[in-house]
Specification:
It is a single chain. The protein has about 150 residues and is α+β, with helices and mostly antiparallel strands. The protein has one domain: Gcn5-related N-acetyltransferase (GNAT) (Aminopeptidase, 3-Layer(aba) Sandwich), CATH 3.40.630. Helix content is about 25%, strand content about 35%. Strands 1, 2, 3, 4, 5, 6, 7 and 8 form an eight-stranded mixed β-sheet that branches. The protein starts with 5 loop residues before the first strand and ends with a strand.
């Protein structure tokens, strides 16, 4: 994959086309439910309140995050959720670019406030390299060990 072939789009829920929404839900299901064998409630009514950052390679959704406004997931922070990169696009730096763009988009939209995430514990180093620090003890979520992490402002 040539990173120049990736086209980025950020949209509010109401701006998503039906095909975009379908591909977002499809990628989340493929990775979180099928690949990671997580049984969890993906449809949690936060999608409608969030912005959606998508990395497209042609008509294939290569990576995605959900940008959650201040006070929705955490009373004192914004959040980035459903961080996912399609299997065929991993190991090429796309996840790092996805997170940097997600953080920049939150700051641009809502100002420089704290960002908190619920991170799978095995990705602790990845998020640490982006400036996140662990703010909780490990806890189980959908059968996978997670930690809360934050970038504080």
């Amino acid at each position: 994959m040539d990173r120049q072939d990736i086209k980025w789009a950020e949209k509010a829920y109401a701006e998503l086309s039906l095909d975009e929404l379908y591909k977002i839900l499809q990628l989340r299901q493929e990775v979180f439910v099928l690949e990671q064998a997580c049984v969890y409630s993906d449809l949690d009514n936060k999608d409608q309140l969030s912005r959606h950052l998508m990395a497209w390679h042609g008509d294939v959704l290569a990576a995605y995050t959900r940008l959650i406004p201040y006070g929705i997931s955490y009373p004192d922070a914004m959040s980035i959720g459903r961080v996912v990169t399609a299997a065929g696009f991993r190991g090429q730096g796309l996840g790092t670019e996805l997170m940097r763009r997600s953080m920049d988009a939150l700051y641009a939209q809502y100002g420089h406030k704290a960002i908190k995430i619920s991170a799978q514990q095995h990705l602790h180093v990845f998020y640490s390299q982006l400036g996140f620090v662990q703010t909780s003890a490990p806890y189980m979520d959908a059968g996978i060990l997670h930690v809360e992490m934050a970038v504080l402002h």
